[in-house]
Amino acid sequence: xxxxxxxxxxxxxxxxxxxxxxxxxxxxxxxxxxxxxxxxxxxxxxxxxxxxxxxxxxxxxxxxxxxxxxxxxxxxxxxxxxxxxxxxxxxxxxxxxxxxxxxxxxxxxxxxxxxxxxxxxxxxxxxxxxxxxxxxxxxxxxxxxxxxxxxxxxxxxxxxxxxxxxxxxxxxxxxxxxxxxxxxxxxxxxxxxxxxxxxxxxxxxxxxxxxxxxxxxxxxxxxxxxxxxxxxxxxxxxxxxxxxxxxxxxxxxxxxxxxxx
Length: 261
What we know:
Elements: H1 8-20, E1 26-28, H2 36-43, E2 48-51, E3 62-65, H3 67-80, E4 86-90, H4 96-111, E5 121-123, H5 128-139, E6 147-150, H6 153-165, E7 175-177, H7 183-186, E8 194-196, H8 199-216, E9 223-226, E10 229-231
Parallel strand pairs: 1-2, 2-3, 3-9, 4-5, 4-6, 6-7
Antiparallel strand pairs: 8-10
């Protein structure tokens, strides 16, 4: 498994390992829409399994998480609370999962008859700091979003900090949600609504698949798609004495009221 960032150093790392004879197989992560690693390892006849897929080699052995369906579930949750000004902090568009999660965001808006506003879409860098800085810009919009969805939990945790620094209450004045189901999401203040993906189980299954390919020459099930589970916590719903009261007062009118004619 390599965590080297994309670029010349990454290519040199893979070439070194591939030609050293000391590596029997690879597990690829952070898959890209066009991923040179898949083509390289295929040409070198080196076994590999990918966590996620790539558009250019869709048949490569992989285990994926259905980010489109997961974000769609999250959008339906937010829309059921009355939100329609929902902002999305995405990731670099070259990453496959970023594209899939953005598809779920846009599908959720379309399904509810809501017009997509490009100003509500901003690109982060998958870090807390990136989520914080990007959320500050979104909070400057007029009218501002009533909900912010982070492409991952770290992004959403940064957004929570930005919302709180503006004197707003997360889960009351503005909703925030993420994706991953990390331990940090459970212990944030307030706890973060998120989409849980079983990364430890996925890692185990990737290893099992890779061992099958190394030993047998093929995997018994070369592709698998897992749907993440929506975990609703206080960052998207009020708690305590506020339960039962209308949440998010700026998002309480009928859903289709603002749809242009």
